[in-house]
Amino acid sequence: MKYLTLHTDSKMPALGLGTWQAAKGEVGQAVSKALSIGYRHIDCAHVYGNETEIGEALTSTRVPRQELWVTSKLWNNSQRPQDVRAALVNSLKRLCLDYLDLYLIHWPVQISHMVMSPQSATDLIPWTTEHALETWGALEECVKEGLVRHIGTSNFSTKKIQILLDNGTIRPAVSQVEMHPYLQQNRMRKFCADNGIIVTGFAPLGSKHRPAHQIKEGEPSLLDHPDIIAIAEKYETTLATILLGWAMTRNTSVIPKSTNPMRLQQNLAAADIVLDEKDMTVIKGLDAGYRFLDGSHWMMEGSSYTSKNLWDGE
Ligand code: A2P
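Above: inputs. Below: predicted complex with adenosine-2'-5'-diphosphate.
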């Protein structure tokens, strides 16, 4: 397994298991299988609704806690400073853990405390720098208390991360963003390299089985691109292995979701693949700035969230 070194000198396994859309009744088995074949990094979130079952799998594994890397994410309805600690403690309880390795602000989007999934713009609270810093301050307290070892962001632009760097006392350790050959995140990679932040890519395979309302008509597919097929043939491996190997060859972390034992194994094999320069150049040419998950579900009528202020043009 390849490891990436964080600004604290801790090491994070580059390949993790994503658990978004991993159904109840399947996710526990998938986590147990993943741990038994060598995964050491599990990416979770309260909003995925499956942390309790993941916790059961973590309890029954023989892998020592210090060899595991567990991430979870603060949901958008708990970003008020008075709600942050309780949200983290609840994730810890569900996951049966004493501490998390990493806790991320899930989105730069705030929703009312009693609402899980906004139905209208009245459930949304506009994003402000002031409130982001209050959330970050509460997360810093959780680090000091030992509830979590690292904190970071998910779906934040470099502009928003810069605000945390400029005003916080604890630096973000990880920036988790959608990343794959159609969205190569070169600006984020450079920014994070310059600031000692690790980039983790979600939806590395194109997140094909996400909810139907989030799938756009005619969207491109990663798993049948002719250039990726040709590279997979050259390495005598699967397209998924190439996509994940590409991410790790760029020294980024990657969290493919699977609940299928065969695909869990295929994805793990990617941690041993290093693509050569020629193949990296071919894949570099596929960048299209294309988001499969464009955050448009936050932009219902009357919402203060727009593509422009969510992604800051990045
Ligand atoms: P499954 O859980 O049945 O394996 P992403 O990580 O980009 O969000 O993509 C996850 C989707 O890709 C899931 O639907 C998952 O289905 C599927 N998937 C995971 N690993 C592979 C693989 N090696 N080959 C093809 N599809 C995969």
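Residues 194 and 269 are 29 Å apart (CA to CA).
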